[in-house]
């Protein structure tokens, strides 16, 4: 296994919490140079200081902020070989109650955000060797669920965006999406803090537990190394057996 990330320079969005944070910690352990972006500037700076990374406050939906943050990451790391788009938000509600502002914001953060990051980082990714893009989509990209029309549309869009990136940018750059099931993070606190909800969610998957951010971080590591060197354009479930089709 070529699991080391020594010499690789990787930008992670959404790194102040949950999966982005677990990815940042694992990648730092594996020797990567890291630029961590998050709207939560204090949170991302604190983590960056702790693990020896560069922390930048940035709203991924804001193109000028993204351009500045990616330029800062490039300057600090001396290039960018990999991107992980983990920043994301959810508004879970019936379509009749899904306000235009919520729809717009989910598309802006979950779909346009990764586009903004990839566009800004593209010259650096193209200049580097064996570059990788990993987008954190969701099982919501693979199967319909009640009350997730906006979120699922944004994540299905992200998964297809990733496949198209694989075509446009191969063979030099590989792009894969990870589709997590229910993972215990701030985003799903309402669910796993309630024992009844939690038991129901665990009970419906083959592996009979909820995921943890580290489950997703290990998959992100695989897709960011040559261990996955013949794999691009995939939608990879990390869901305990939830999204079988
Ligand atoms: N938790 C789950 O069960 C689950 C399942 C499937 C997919 N996902 C996806 O995984 C990704 C990570 O989610 P998580 O569960 O770790 O959530 P989380 O809420 O713990 O972390 C999300 C992070 O993204 C940051 N963020 C939100 N909007 C941002 C913006 N506009 N610009 C920059 N940063 C922003 C937040 O500040 C936070 O630090 C998200 O894309 C989410 O949609 C989560």
Which short descriptors sum up this protein?
alpha/beta, 245 residues, 7 strands, globular, 7-stranded parallel β-sheet, binds nicotinamide-adenine-dinucleotide, 45% helix, Rossmann fold
Write a structural description.
Helices cover 45% and strands 15% of the residues. The radius of gyration is 17 Å and the shape is globular. The chain is an alpha/beta fold and 245 residues long. It has one domain: Rossmann fold. α5 (149-169) links the parallel β5 (131-136) and β6 (173-180). 49% of the residues are buried. α3 (63-77) packs parallel to α4. A seven-stranded parallel sheet has the order 3-2-1-4-5-6-7, with helices on both faces. The mean pLDDT is 97. The protein starts with 8 loop residues before the first strand and ends in a 7-residue tail after the last strand. The structure holds nicotinamide-adenine-dinucleotide. Nicotinamide-adenine-dinucleotide binds at residues 13-14, 16-20, 38-40, 58-61, 86-90, 109, 136, 138, 180, 182-183, 185-188.
């Amino acid at each position: 296994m070529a699991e080391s990330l020594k010499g690789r320079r990787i930008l992670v969005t959404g790194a102040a919490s949950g999966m982005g944070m677990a990815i940042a910690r694992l990648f730092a352990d594996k020797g990567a140079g890291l630029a961590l972006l998050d709207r939560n500037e204090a949170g991302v700076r604190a983590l960056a200081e702790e693990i020896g990374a560069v922390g930048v406050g940035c709203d991924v939906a804001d193109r000028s902020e993204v351009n500045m943050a990616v330029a800062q990451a490039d300057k600090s790391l001396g290039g960018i070989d990999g991107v992980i788009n983990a920043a994301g938000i959810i508004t879970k509600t019936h379509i009749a109650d899904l306000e235009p502002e919520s729809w717009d914001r989910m598309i802006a953060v979950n779909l346009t955000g990764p586009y903004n990051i990839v566009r800004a980082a593209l010259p650096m990714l193209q200049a580097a060797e064996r570059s990788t893009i990993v987008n954190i989509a969701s099982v919501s990209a693979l199967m319909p669920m009640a009350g997730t029309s906006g979120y699922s549309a944004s994540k299905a869009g992200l998964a297809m965006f990733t496949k198209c990136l694989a075509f446009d940018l191969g063979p030099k750059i590989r792009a894969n999406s990870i589709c997590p099931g229910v993972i215990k993070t701030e985003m799903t606190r309402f669910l796993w803090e309630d024992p009844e909800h939690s038991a129901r969610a665990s009970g419906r998957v083959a592996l009979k537990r909820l995921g943890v951010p580290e489950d997703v971080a290990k998959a992100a590591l695989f897709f960011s190394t040559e261990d996955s060197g013949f794999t691009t354009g995939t939608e990879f479930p990390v869901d305990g057996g939830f999204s079988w089709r």
